[in-house]
Automatic annotation (TrEMBL):
This is DUF3224 domain-containing protein. The lineage of its organism: Bacteria, Pseudomonadati, Pseudomonadota, Gammaproteobacteria, Alteromonadales. It comes from Paraglaciecola mesophila KMM 241. It comes from the Bacteria. It holds the Pfam family DUF3224.
Length: 123
């Protein structure tokens, strides 16, 4: 099955001068087939030659096509001049409530400053 919709995201950089990586708090509001909030943290690193990576853990709470519960999304992204990749998967065993047993993967589409998602899932 596929769920689609949009989301708004607020990223709050966290200062730590001693850390060799960047850290941000994630606060998302989902609309569409997913209705609810996603909160989490992102760790990122950019090299001098322009390669960047990020990893994030996001906890969603709300409804998926009318079924309520929670689940965890794992983000793994890499960007360079040659390659851009982003894998977002649902952490196996993380779903609760009516979403217990949920598995799947999400794609994020950015266009004209707006964010939308496609979640391919099994429940």
């Amino acid at each position: 099955m596929t769920a689609t919709g949009t989301f708004e995201v607020d990223l709050s950089p966290q200062k730590d001068e001693a850390a060799p990586v960047g850290r941000m708090l994630i606060d998302k509001t989902y609309q569409g087939d997913l209705v609810g909030k996603g909160i989490g943290q992102m760790i990122s690193k950019r090299t001098d030659n322009g390669v960047a990576v990020y990893f994030a853990i996001e906890e969603f709470e709300g409804t998926l096509q009318g079924k309520s519960g929670t689940f965890t999304l794992l983000h793994n992204g890499k960007m360079s001049a040659e390659v851009q990749s982003l894998d977002i998967t649902i952490l196996e065993g993380s779903a609760s409530g009516e979403l217990t047993g949920l598995t799947g993967a999400m794609r994020i589409i950015q266009q004209d400053g707006k964010h939308s998602y496609e979640l391919d899932f099994e429940l």
